[in-house]
Structure prediction request, 130 residues.
Amino acid sequence: MNSARKSTSAKSALCTTWETDFLILGMNSDDDLRSRLASDLQALAHLIPIEHAHISLERQHAATPPFQAAVMLVVPGPDIHVAARDHTWPAAWQKVLDRLREQVEQRRSRLAKRRRDQPRRQPPVVSRAR
Prediction:
């Protein structure tokens, strides 16, 4: 069984750089695979500032479906965890990306609603006695 663990850095418009940890088990891992996974996450970086990313891609021969993809994003507020399984690694990875985008957009819409519904505070009027 081939296993690979590697870290790289990526750049984002919201957060200048973040570390990415890769854990790839049961399949051939190369720089092309890692760069594809990192670039897919880079596409989400304009939605939320990413501080650190942990990406796991695993082929389990005894399980059905055999491919599992998982991502844990360290972001401001609660971290985001997503995992998915499918019969091919690209399908499992696409499920993870779709769920990540969904969670990030839900978080952004909740924050926008909270800001929109919060009453604006006016500075107190100070009268000066003469």
User: Anything to note?
Assistant: The chain has one domain: 3-106.
